[in-house]
């Protein structure tokens, strides 16, 4: 097995020392820590969250790649690690679902819209200086400067850090080591504005919208080609009179036509690409019409922003 390791490093100057290595045949990075009883508990918690929140897994995959492509995913280098990122997504989904319920609206679990709203929340709306996050009790925000929180969650030298209560150690700040939070917040803001430029009128031509924020790898290009071939084969094998245009390949899409009254809509998918399609195509039963999406965005941006600075 030693021949299969192409990189090995021991990192001892962190709160939890770890051993990092890369498995050469699969190019997977592995972190190992010892004598930490919280690991299995945290893994079980994430598993329960994923069962309760179907969008959590795909959003995590997309956002982890987004962070890695910008080298802001390593905690001991000031970035956001996997656990912290998943807690941020969980908190976002908790508050979003509560807002939809309180407003009497049916929750639209559209991955494209969720990705945009995540970037909007943590890139524009969230106040990192005053607000902390907890995912306990269905999720809530707390003031970092309150008497019972200031000692553990306020960092005078890093006021912009993200205070994230550890779900198993409520006095521990899971985001304390992420000292590059201002850069990360700016990355989210740029990603949000970039995506909005391509899903709004006037139409900006491009091959793939997600390609503008997620640099594609060779493997992604091969997978996209295979999906395209599979889609063509299904269309050729489709029996006459077997239904409409469908668009089932992009089975989770966001069709938006902001300001355009529904004409020239687009489908947004977080599975590898966001592409323009015929505005008559329905995508799937989880798609959102342009009118519905416009009204939801207008309502969301019209009400008081979540913890706006």
The 3D shape can be described as: globular
Number of helices in the DSSP assignment: 8
Helix content range: 25-40%
Name the poorly predicted regions: 242-309
**Main sheet summary:** 3 strands, antiparallel
* Arithmetic mean pLDDT: 78
What would you report as the Rg, rounded to the nearest angstrom?
Answer: 21 Å
What is the tally of beta strands? 8
List the secondary-structure elements in sequence, H or E: EEEHHHHEEHEHHEEH
Can you list the strand order of the major beta sheet?
Answer: 1-2-3
Q: Could you tell me how far the N terminus lies from the C terminus, measured between alpha carbons in angstroms?
A: 51 Å
Strand content: 5-15%
Category by helix and strand content: alpha+beta
Could you outline the blueprint of secondary structure elements for this entry?
Layout: E1 5-11, E2 18-23, E3 28-32, H1 38-52, H2 56-68, H3 82-102, H4 111-125, E4 131-134, E5 140-143, H5 150-153, E6 163-164, H6 181-198, H7 218-237, E7 266-267, E8 275-276, H8 290-302
Parallel strand pairs: 4-6
Antiparallel strand pairs: 1-2, 2-3, 4-5, 7-8
Structure explained in plain terms:
This protein has 309 residues and is α+β, with helices and mostly antiparallel strands. Helix content is 39%, strand content 10%. It has helices at 38-52, 56-68, 82-102, 111-125, 150-153, 181-198, 218-237, 290-302, and strands at residues 5-11, 18-23, 28-32, 131-134, 140-143, 163-164, 266-267, 275-276. The longest helix has 21 residues, at 82-102. The radius of gyration is 21 Å and the shape is globular.
